[in-house]
Amino acid sequence: MNKHFLPISAMLSAMAATAQERPLNIVYIMCDDHSYQTISAYGSTVNHTPNIDRLAERGVRFTNSFVANSLSGPSRACMLTGKHSHANGFTDNTKRFDGSQQTFPKLLRQAGYQTAMIGKWHLVSLPTGFDYWDILTGQGDYYNPTFIRSTDGDTDHAERLQRHGYSTNITTDLALDWLSRQRDPQKPFCLFIHHKAPHRTWMPDLQDLELFSDSTYELPSNFYDDYSGRRAAQEQRMTIARDMDLVYDLKMADRDSTIHSFDTTLEQWGRAMYTQRMDSAQQAAWDQHYQPIIEKFKSDNLQGDDLVRWKFQQYMRDYLRVIHSVDRNVGRVIDYLKDNGLLENTLIVYTSDQGFYMGEHGWFDKRFMYEESFRTPLIMSLPAAYGGKQGITSDAMVQNIDYAPTFLEAAGVAVPSDIQGESMLSEIKKMKASKKGSSRDRMNETTKAKTRALYYHYYEYPDEHRVNRHFGIRTKRYSLMRFYGDVNQWELYDLKRDPQNMHNIYGKLGTLSLTRKLKKQLLQLQELYDDPIRLTVDD
Ligand code: SGN
Ligand code: CA
Q: Which ligand 1 atom sits closest to the C-alpha of 72?
């Protein structure tokens, strides 16, 4: 039969078959410290992120997405290896990643993928498993940042170079340049775009400085948390009131140095940060925005709670400006893929290395197994031809150790048995699976992901914000955590009644059998994952 006379349904299925045969590309966009509270697809009340929302409209938004260890380096190591921190060795930011170990980019590369890593890396050792890498040094700088690049993936060929401009724009420029000019178009690819933004000290792009200047933000309802019943929370050093610095964090680097930090080193760093890296034009634009704020701040001479409230507003404005630039750059990536015919065979992921406090408990930073920092935004947009569904929300319990097996399965690469995470692909293809499988299969698949308990272990203490070490288990309804080291304490939360982790009910009347059950499950997870640090059940 002449193909022009094929019925439309047959033509559509032929098109789908062709798309299925094209290997799937992966674009993995990860920010540093982006809170789900500041993404409109996640119900933000303070800003709009139309481009991140575009991804949610095209894919699956996970509402129960968590990390395994709420800190940058550890999170990245979990993501690369699909293993918890004790298993991949990168337990805190002082460690050095052992790049000789198995990672999913290496496995994809062996299977014929081209791999590239651009932006914040933060694993101390240089990247392995990539054909191209162009990484920010350390935490990276917002302005005129220094990169280390290897155009063939070989560390011996690495070169340092400083680039002019704003980090989020440059990282995106490099990613688009790699896509358009440097990759081999015959091969499928996996591209990491890792932004420094919106990490402390939340420095906006010059073009966004005037945004939100007139906005004021409501304090979270638990901003004045007194941390009663939670000793580790009493010990931390990450409050907006006490630990967020006027010069260093909030940019009140006045010319005559009358505004002081609570710490002289921090003040010196702050003053240097806002002068030394910028060129004269950048500096002038920066000063034009901040100097009047500095002058007003001085003349207002705020004290006590008025000062704390001012700090919160200033923090929010800068953070949201930085997010505005992230969102714009996510839009550039989506547009590029669309304009170049890549949207229909590319899995696009948007996430952060952990969540972040936007004043909840009076805090900035992360680390705790409390909700805002344990959770992380996660959106996965898989093209329809690969079974992806649009505009879906999944409440399955997922964690960043699950990304590696998900990407491997999506690429048709076998998942090694030592990977500890579980593929989320069936959640991403949920509707398709439910049409195909029997109702029993469907139940099993859904129940497992939905009722799964997650394991958490945080190690970095006392630096830098004095959050005690802790591990714990998170079921759909409860969080049980055990702080150890200087503070030895159990905490238990019923998240249905107490979603903000305000009331530690450990040891309270009526919680004994629940606690026993959760401790047993926690121990089972520690055994399953082979964590050498364990508790005894009656500990
Ligand atoms: C830096 C920050 C800390 C932050 C850590 C870890 N201080 O040390 O506030 O908690 O990074 O963040 S700063 O003075 O250097 O800004 S992480 O996301 O990279 O793990
Ligand atoms: Ca981070």
A: 20
